[in-house]
Each structure stands twice: as C-alpha cells, then as structure tokens.
Amino acid sequence: DDSVSLESFELQARGISNLDLSCLEKPSIVLLRLSQSAEILLPERSVARRMRQLCVDLLPRGCEAHHASKALDLRNFVSLEALEVCTASQLLLPEALKLRELTLQVPALTSLDISDWAIYSELRKLKISRSEKLATLRLPRGGELRELSLDLPTIQDLQIYLKVAEHLYLAAPAVQQISFLGCKGLTAAGLSRALCGCSALERLNLTHCADLEAMRFTDNMLSELDLQGLSRVHHLQALELDAPRLSHLWLPAPSLSHHNLRKLVLQSQDLSSLDLTSLFWADLLEISLTAPRLATLKPPREATRLPGERISCQHSVYIDADKLTLLDLSGARPEKLQLHSLAHMSITWPRDAPAAMDLRVELPNAKNALPPAGTRLWSMLLSLNCSGCKALEPKSLVLSASACTWLRHLSLEGCMLLCDASLLSVVQGAKRLEVLNCRACPKITRLGIRAVVRAASPVLASLECDELGPIVRAWPPDIFALATWLGSTELRRRWLRLRKAEALATMQSAKRLAGGILLCLSTLSVVAVRVFLRPWRCT
C-alpha cells in the first residue's frame, strides 16, 4: 500500500489479468504491454496530470482483437506529450494541449473527433491504424500537425490540415472525398504517394498548398478537382491529369509570385465544359486537351501589352474534342497547333505566330478548316497537315499559296475536293516545298501529278501519291509533255528520284505484309502438327 516514487515504469507481461497503478506517486513515463482482458487501475488524477508519456498496448499480436465492454478512460492525462494506445475497447482521449505525438490502434472505434482541442494543442504527429470500424474522423483545421499516417479502410470523407507536410501517408481505399488545407511543403511526389492508397477517390479539394509545383497522376474514379483555393502565391506550374470520369475542373487564380500554370495536359471522357480564363496565353508552354465530350471551352486570356511590346513566349496547343463547335485562339501564339473535331468547328485563328509554325487540322466535317486567306499565319507556316479533312474546300489554300514562302511539308491526304488545278497552284506558290502528300485524293490524276512535278522547285524530295505512273502518256501521245521531258535533264532526274522513293516505300510495305503472312503460316503449321500428333501421344 505504500506509494512508489518512479521516474519511469515499463511492464511487458501478457499473462497479467489485474494491474494496480494507483500507488505510483510521480512517474513521468509509463509503458504497458498487457493482455487484452487485463483490468488496469490507473493512477490518481493528481498523478496522471503530471505524466509526460503514456503507452498502453492491450491488443493481442497475430490474432483478431475482440471487443471489450469497458472503455479505457484517459481523460485525466492532460499533460501528456506522447500517447500511444492499442486497445480493443472504446477510448476516451484527454484534452492534452501539450501533446505532440498521438498513435491509435483501436479496432472498436467508430468515430473520433479531435477537432476542438487539437487545434490549440502542440500535436505534430498523428498515426491511426487497425481501426477497421472508424467511419467518422474529424481532424483539427489548424494547429501544428506536420506528420499524418492514416490506415482506415472504411472512412469515406477526410479533411486534412497540415501546417507543414513533412510526412503524409493515406491508406483509405473507401474514401470518396478529400480536402487538403495548409500543407506547406507538399510536393508533387508527396501528393502522388498519398493518393496512391485512395483508389475510390471522387472529389479532391486543395486549399493553400503554396509549395505544390505540379500535379501528375492517373485516377479512374476522380470526378471533381477544385484548385480555386490554392494560395495567391502558389507555385503550381504543371497539371497533368488522366482522369476518364472527370466532369468538373476548377483552376486556380493567377499567382502573385508569377509562378502561373505553364503546362496543362488533360484527358477525360466525361468533361463537357472547361473554363481557362484564369490562365494567360503568355504563360503557357503547352496545352493539351483530349475530351471527346467537351462542348464549351473558354480560352485563356491574352496578356495586356504595353505600346510596342511583343510577347516572345511560344507554346504548343493540342485540342481533341469531337463536340466542340466554337474555338477562340485569337490570343494564342502557337509554335505547334493540332486540332481534331468531328463537329463543324468555327475557329478564331491566332492574330500572331512565331517565325516557324506547324499546323495540323483534322476536321473531316468542316469546310473552312484553314485560316482565312491573307492572314499572317500563312507566311509563318513551316508544316501543314490537313489529312482527313474530307469536306475541306481548298479555296483559302489556293489563294494563300503565294504567301507560303516557308512551307516545307504539306500533307493533303484524304482531301476529297482537291483537284489538279488547286494542287498545281499550291506547288507553284510554295517555292521551298520538300515533302508533298496527296494520297487518297480521288480528283488528282496522273496528268495533274506530272504537272506538279514540272512546276515544283528543285528542292522537292518526296512526293506521296497513289501512283506516279509513266513519264508521259504512251497513247495517245502528249506531244507537249514529251517535248518538255526530252528537253529537261533535271526534270527526268527528279522524276526518277521520286519513282525510286515510291518503289522503296512500296517494297517496305510488301516486306511487312510478307512477314505477317509468314508468321501466320508458321503459327498455323505448328497448330496443325500438334493436332495431328495428339492421337499418337494418347496411344
């Protein structure tokens, strides 16, 4: 019965059923590892208020814990700095404002609320695991929390505040909504690691998170992503999402630290509208949107220029949206521009372009799929690909042919309305044309191809068409064409060079076809041999 004065007390005895600690006078550290059914008489309230570290482990190792009827009441330990509790019974936590570390393993726990007192405490490290029944968790939305580890298989909603994100681990396969608040120091790698254990996540909200420089992850369940609450001095510069079910995306406001979004790569099957007005064309280096159901797109804003100022930023733009009918690119200055849509898209083309521009449009149902004639874009084109534009009327291309002074690569494959006269006008205007593709154009004839070869500049090195044919028509003879070919040695050499390129491409295609046929035959022969030998094996 005499009181015992100890600085620390540690006991590991799984066989003990009763333990009386009421005689301890002033222990500062208590470590207990007992059996699940052990009954513990805790120290007096005056003694408990002086303890700094407490560890109570009543869970069995290697077997399932059974629910205990009596709750473990720790409300008197209000001066603790570190607390670790592993118990199968219900738990009553103290409001310890000096608590720095809290570790819980409570399988019977169904709800936990530490939002009221922990916000004023010194809690820096929180770890919760082996709590399979925990369905409601309220964490503090302020305070000193820096390290968080949660292994909660049944939780569905999480609101997480970290003053500094030194360590973040989440294993919550059933969680559907997560909100991050504060989280200074959270990086792209840290966020990706944390979300790897949240396979059912549908809604994600980020508030503050000033040091997050990028977001790169793939999520098949994510439907909403809200970045409007990011800090006004955020550092987010890259956003790459592969989320097939994403239907709502809210981007952050422009950063006052001039670290605005520079790369946006988005792939989604369910996104129908997107607002990019919080971005500036001058800040973007790459924007790629693959959204088949996207019908409404509000473009980035054009930066305000001073009188006489030119913006030197160049970017790459790729938009694949089958339902998009209106696209405004007036403020863009793209170095590479690729557009794909099955709708009758109306395009407001850029007013300015860099010194060399690559343009690729695949708009099979659009008649005016090219910039209007006379615009500055034609003089900046280095490569133009209109493959698949079946309804394209080549009027603007013909009228602007003389302005295509830098055009070197031209692909008009599949343009059903392209004729010999239009193709000839384009080739005559593009003096630096090196590669020309006019396959699958039914209105292009051999006579037109011969006229193109005669009119092309000497730098033309590749001509892809359905068939070049002979140099001149054999019968009835074309006297003018024959005289032209006989009188120009360079013309005959160019024709032979183009014929060799065509023959080489045909030979390569034939080799690939022959290889495939041989592979199929060898596979069929092996199968036939096995089928034939099977009865012999049985006998």
Structure description:
It is a single chain. The protein is α/β, with parallel strands linked by helices. Helix content is 19%, strand content 29%. The protein is built from eight helices and 34 strands. Strands 18-20-22-24-26-28-30-31-32-33-34 form an eleven-stranded parallel β-sheet. It has an eight-stranded parallel β-sheet with strand order 1-3-5-7-9-11-13-15. Strands 14-16-17-19-21 form a five-stranded parallel β-sheet, with no helix packed on it. Helix 5 runs parallel beside helix 6 (446-455). The longest helix has 50 residues, at 489-538. It starts with 7 loop residues before the first strand and ends with a helix.
Q: What gross morphology would you assign? A: elongated
Structural class: alpha/beta
Oligomerization state: single chain
Mean pLDDT: 84
Discrete helix count: 8
Query: What is the straight-line distance between the termini?
Result: 90 Å
Portion of residues in helices? Answer: 10-25%
Q: Which stretches of 5+ consecutive residues score pLDDT under 50?
A: 470-477
What is the spatial order of strands in the main beta sheet?
Answer: 18-20-22-24-26-28-30-31-32-33-34
- Rg, rounded, reads 36 Å
Question: What profile does the largest beta sheet have?
Answer: 11 strands, parallel
Strand proportion, as a percent range, falls in 25-35%
Tally the beta strands: 34
